[in-house]
Design a protein that fits this description.
The protein is mostly beta strands and 139 residues long. It has no helices and eight strands. It has a three-stranded antiparallel β-sheet with strand order 3-8-5, with no helix packed on it. Strands 4-7-6 form a three-stranded antiparallel β-sheet, with no helix packed on it. The chain has a two-stranded antiparallel sheet with strand order 1-2.
């Protein structure tokens, strides 16, 4: 068995408590109740799919005036986005206008496309707002 080096407070009963600085090789089982866990390859939570990267931030999206039942695509730059990643977006400055629906996907490296649709029978006025995104890369 190799060596184990810990820096900071460490206690263990049934689980693990305290601070660890350095590299851990192998599986860690138990609860992490505080702090930040950084993994160089991937993290699987609760036995789910391994996540290799999470990106969070905001982008400015300008919605044009949309006629009834019309849609438009807006490209925004999200550095680190790759095709196949999963992305969620939502307006953060204010609630989305009633009748406005949207979805998003990574359309190219570093580019997220937001599709905005007017699902009403009347036109909607456009505006510019900050939108939050959460981008997940999976193994």
């Amino acid at each position: 068995m190799g060596s184990t080096t810990f820096s900071g407070a460490v206690t263990s009963t049934n689980g693990f408590t305290g601070d660890v600085t350095g590299n851990v090789t192998g599986d860690i089982t138990g609860d992490v109740t505080a702090g930040t866990v950084t993994a160089s390859t991937s993290v699987a939570i609760g036995g789910g799919t391994a996540v290799t990267n999470l990106l969070q931030g905001t982008v400015s999206v300008t919605v044009s005036a949309l006629a009834a039942n019309a849609q438009e695509d807006k490209d925004v730059t999200v550095t680190g986005a790759a095709t196949g990643d999963i992305v969620t977006v939502c307006p953060t400055d204010a609630a989305a206008e009633a009748g406005l629906t949207f979805c998003a996907w990574v359309s190219a490296a570093d580019t997220v496309t937001v599709r905005i649709t007017n699902d009403t029978t009347g036109s909607l006025t456009g505006s510019t707002a900050n939108w939050s995104y959460l981008l997940t890369s999976i193994a």
